[in-house]
Amino acid sequence: MSEQKNIFPRELEHEAIYIIREVAAQFERPALLFSGGKDSITLVQLARKAFYPAKVPFPMLHIDTGHNFPETIEFRDWLAKESGMQLIVRYVQDSIDLGKVQEETGKYASRNMLQTVTLLDAIEELKFDACIGGARRDEEKARAKERIFSVRDDFGQWDAKKQRPELFDMLNGKINIGENVRVFPISNWTELDVWSYIKEDGIPIPSIYYSHEREIIERDGMYWPASPFLNTTEDEVPFKATVRFRTVGDMTCTAAVLSEAVTIDRIIEEIKEATISERGARIDDKRSEAAMEKRKQVGYF
């Protein structure tokens, strides 16, 4: 296969760096929401470029559900050390132990929704007034509605009908007491843009993005990673297959895709030929037609 050409539009990088610098200028206590996925890893790269040669002036915040892929946690800890950024971790298990949320039961049990409470508690505890996230408009229709500076009320909730205009790249960070802002520097990027950027900048990513052998089960036409967190039925017998993950969330809400892609060039080729969207492998989005929008309304990432 011939080598891929340089196809990343650097104007997107310039825009993202401008947005990140605006966050540092307009807010007192920002944080970068880190999931261990490619989008938040891209944000770390952009933040480092935005303030080089100084250190990034805000921490990474990770909401650990306890159901993460081990590869993701290992990569998170490595990146925090390598980048020199402060890493703050808050745990969904603590929210469960305190009785603030209740563990789901049943075949499709997941902690994906539960982490919203942990996130909002962390924002209040640490007094963050802006949280930088890696959401992109091409991912999902609810995210397409959101502005780059997305204001959340004093309950952490989002109202799609109360979005501020953002004309001529003017970003308004003024908020009332108790409110906070979610900021999306790569909102205008596509999945292909992210991968092209990762390739061109040589950004390390977790191994699960590449093809590897793994035990999976087949459910609802998708390949779920076998794990002790997944509630399986007797007929759901794990088997080994060569897969990779196109998007990374919890082990209970992220499906794998059959793949032989062991390089970023191969991954880019797969994306170009894909007939389903990136979020098509996110099981949590399939709970209802408006699953993402409902999560965002109550404070989700």
What does the secondary structure layout of this molecule look like, with pairings?
Elements: H1 10-26, E1 30-33, H2 38-51, E2 60-64, H3 70-83, E3 87-91, H4 92-97, H5 115-126, E4 130-132, H6 141-144, E5 149-152, E6 180-183, H7 191-201, E7 212-219, E8 222-225, E9 239-244, E10 257-258, H8 264-273, H9 291-297
Parallel strand pairs: 1-2, 1-4, 2-3, 4-6
Antiparallel strand pairs: 5-6, 7-8, 7-9, 9-10
Describe the model:
About 30% of the residues lie in helices and about 15% in strands. The chain is α/β, with parallel strands linked by helices. The strands form two sheets. It has a six-stranded mixed sheet with strand order 3-2-1-4-6-5, sandwiched between helices. The protein has a four-stranded antiparallel sheet with strand order 8-7-9-10, with no helix packed on it. Helix 1 (about 10-25) packs across helix 2 (about 40-50) and helix 7 (about 190-200) runs antiparallel to helix 8. It is globular, with a radius of gyration of 19 Å. The mean pLDDT is about 90.
Summary keywords:
301 residues; alpha/beta; Rossmann fold; 2 domains; 6-stranded mixed β-sheet; 4-stranded antiparallel β-sheet; 9 helices; sulfate adenylyltransferase (ATP) activity; nucleotidyltransferase; Sulfate_adenylyltrnsfr_sub2; SO4_adenylTrfase_ssu; EC 2.7.7.4
Major sheet: order of its strands? 3-2-1-4-6-5
Radius of gyration: 19 Å
CATH class of the largest domain: Alpha Beta
Largest sheet: 6 strands, mixed
CATH fold title of the largest domain: Rossmann fold
CATH superfamily grouping of the largest domain: HUPs
Mean pLDDT: 89
How many H/I helical runs? 9
Helix content estimate: 25-40%
**Low-confidence segments:** none
Q: SS-based structural class?
A: alpha/beta
Protein name: Sulfate adenylyltransferase subunit 2
GO biological process, one term: sulfate assimilation
EC number: 2.7.7.4
InterPro entries: PAPS_reduct_dom (IPR002500), Rossmann-like_a/b/a_fold (IPR014729), SO4_adenylTrfase_ssu (IPR011784), Sulfate_adenylyltrnsfr_sub2 (IPR050128)
